[in-house]
Amino acid sequence: MQSSEEMLESVGGARELLYRGVLPADIAAQSPEAIDAWIKQQHAELGPMIAILEKFNGSSLISYRFDQASTGGSTYSWSELAKLDGTKTQVMNILLQPEQVESIKAAYASLKESVYAGLVMQTRLKGYLDGVNIQFVDGGLKFDYSALDAMLELKRGRQLDEAFQDIVDLHTYGKSFLEGSGWKFGEILDAWIGCQPPVKLIQP
Predict the structure, then answer these.
(1) C-beta of residue 126 within 8 angstroms of C-beta of residue 52
(2) How many whole angstroms separate alpha carbon 117 and alpha carbon 174?
(3) Phi/psi at 199 (nearest 5 deg)?
(4) What is d(CA 75, CA 73) in angstroms, rounded to the nearest whole number?
């Protein structure tokens, strides 16, 4: 599906839709050029987030009818803007309230985290998970983590920072499977921390 921005800008001639938050007082006191630059910076941050969320969720942030857009209880229309080169374009500024901006950023961060989790479990951490040996013993499942632990120890001996990142990511994204079936993440990490200097972990 098209994002709201793509859909609205494709209807009619030269059109530009801009998302922005509430204009801060210190920006409002500046020149029109400074205000315009702030609005464009806001859109550069919020626009891609909204487009991705709309396409992922299959729903639009705004509704569009009779050449007007509505969201958050407000309705917006196109305004004609004359450029320095003599051409004209239609601009629509969509004002998002603070709670809307916070909700969009939180939803985007959550989506980004879930995508990262899916990718990291299928790529960088896949070898560790493949190393878990599952057997059916005495009528129940038995999980053998010796190969996984050996791979972590090997990584720790070669690339300490990456090994710490891997074990933390295994705990974060594979917790429901690994620790639910008996993997002793805490014991391993405590042992590592006890004999190593602090390690800076990379945030996704």
Answers:
(1) no
(2) 9
(3) -120, 135
(4) 7
Instruction: Parse the chain into domains and list their residue ranges.
Output: 4-111, 124-194
Residue type, 172: T
Residue type (1 letter), 11:
V
pLDDT digits (tens, 9 = 90+) for 100-155: 999 999 999 988 888 777 777 888 888 888 888 877 777 677 888 889 999 999 99
Structure-token pair, residue 117 = 């989790």
Q: DSSP secondary structure string, the chain? A: ---HHHHHHHSSSSEEEEEE-PPPHHHHTS-HHHHHHHHHHHHHHHHHHHHHHHHHHT--SSEEETTEEEETTEEEE-EEEE-TTS-EEEEEEEE--HHHHHHHHHHHHHHHHHHHHHHHHHTTTHHHHHT-EEEEETTEEEEE-HHHHHHHHHHHHH-HHHHHHHHHHHHHHHHHHHGGGT--HHHHHHHHHHTS---PPPP-
Q: How far apart are CA 41 and CA 20, in angstroms?
A: 9
Q: Is the pLDDT of residue 177 over 70?
A: yes
> Hey, what are 172's tokens?
């974060």
